[in-house]
Give the backbone structure.
Amino acid sequence: MRIKKLKQRRKDLFNELYDLHHAEPNPAMYIMKRHEIEHEIACIEEAIELEKTMAPFKWTLYGFIVIAVGLLIWAYAVSK
């Protein structure tokens, strides 16, 4: 879910960069704003890669939690 939001934000930033390029703004303002947008796009791309890398670990953690809760319930049921 978070990856979809990050990809949508990246798409919005690319559109903003495109609009900025075609608006013909003040050159100094254009350079500053362009660098700001490009930096944010780079940060978003890094976050997307991190999310993709961490996905297997996240699901493994969820699996361990479910197993642990199941074992606790089983141990409680057996002790009665």
About this structure: The radius of gyration is 23 Å.
